[in-house]
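hey m, so remember when u said the tokens were messed up on ur end? i reran from scratch. heres the input so u can diff it against urs
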Amino acid sequence: MSRDRIGYGLRLGLAALIALALALALGLPNPYWAAMTVWITAQPTRGMLAERLAFRLLGTVAGAAVGLLLLRATHEPVLVVAALALWLGLCIAAGNLLRHSLAYGTLLAGYTAGIVVLPEFIPGLPPHDLPAARILATILGVLVSAIVTWLLTPDSPREATLRRMGELGRDGLAWAADCLRGTLPAPGLAAREQALLVELARIEDGADQLAAGSPRAYARIRALRGVVAALLSVISTARLLQARLAELPPDPGLAAWCEDLACRLGTAAPPAACAPPPAARRTAAALAEAVVALRQALAALDSAPAAPPRRMPFHRDWPAALAAALRGVAAVGLLGAAWLLSGWSFGPFLVMGGSIFASAFSGHPQPVAALRGVLMGACAGLAAALLCRLVLLPQEAGMGQLLLTLAPFMALGGLAQAHPVLGKPAMDANMVFMLAAQPMLPLHGTPAMLVQGGLVIPLSIAATLSIFWLLRGDRLRGLPVALRRDLAGLAAGRDAAALARGRARLDHRVLRLTQQAPDRAAEGLAVLRLGDALRLLGGAGCAAAAVLRQPAAAWDGAPAALRGGAGADEAGSLMRSAATALEAAAPVLRPVAPALRRLPGSAAAPPEPAPRP
């Protein structure tokens, strides 16, 4: 814990305490919602804080509006549960197709409707205008968080990342020069190539967060993504050119041209001073085009260009979004059925918790493992809340005594949330602490009610964890399907614009694959080489398209068949490169049976049926 982290944690705890105090003074129902807004909107940079606060407010308003409409439409519990499940599923599906702050606001709108509606079915609670209370508490928490933490929250490390992006662009050109010279050992070149891809994937994944809070910065982030896309093209086309040059007979003129090209890649000179050899003209032209695009994108990093590079097409995992939505619907439906069948008075809180956790972890790559950590944090927060309410706070405590008793818990919670390792479970503990402690005036609730109400939270987490475990899926399965579809389109396409669009779609899919599974970087690079080879073939790769559409059993020997049928000209070299890349990318591209096939002890599933002609 550095001094900066300690200061940030104390400011966070102070902001949450101030928000709670103001909500208590204003007499808002459920005043702890204001403090919870401070906890959940805490961000490491000022721009991310601004966007999180804005989308927290927008998502809350949208969800509260839907909840209000639902309450006016019906008070029948079965219909309410069904409507909430449908709304949550729609929001989860949309949130899994969106990115960053937009996804957060959409998911928040999904479960806010349940937070507004479900307390109406709990006997004994005083009547309140919950939609208005939720919105007012959120506004209060947003204002306090902005005032207390804004000036002391650091700016985005955008400039440092953009400088690093420029260094990576120059490193990529230097790598391409070494690749064409052929003076370095192949393992060293491959290791540098994979390291470049892994770092590019990491930077691209956080690019939108770097631009958060600054509309002008988004143009520079588009330039950053332009560098990423151009650099990926430089890497793949340099490999294709290297493979073509290795097939040509030794020639002093060819060696001189190759050395001149390698020298120019490391400088600001044009990528080619003289015409490339006729036997490699198509591949050399593709490399020159990628180098020009890379240098233009590097120049645009320093300022927001008037015409920023074309947007990188983002990977939208529709099957994963649908699966996440179904898990959310199942969570609300099953927990709602348990409430309606048991008649448990705290059942609505169980449904509410299931909707929150099913939404929050719908897009997590490992939701079961993450929910285990949340369960541990929730148990810690519950223990602290029961200690505070049952041991330290008398039932007749006033506002001053309540805030003084809560202050140490809030300070420790802020410090824990600022910790680099404990941050995520600490935020869950802080949220559960506020929910279970029920800090409002006057204090109400018997010990039995507090314990029973507090246990609902870990119970809802455990139930959601079980649903995620039963309906678990491989989030990487959608990527191979999309990659095979794009590559098959490249292999069969002839229109230049369509080929360029198809190749551009590969970039973000490969970056997402590498970000989720860094050990697949080599296969991702092979996919890019395959895509560029098919694009340069311009529709002459129909045999590759047939292979990409084959079931798993038909892949054995398919790359060798492609390689054997290629000619000796440049098109034949590209086909051989495509076959080699197809072979290297087979672990990712090969059609796979369901995820159960890869579990220890499970029997191999039968091969997929061959596609109909």
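this time it looks ok to me. Residues 3-155+316-470 form one domain. if urs says something different then somethings off w ur setup not the seq
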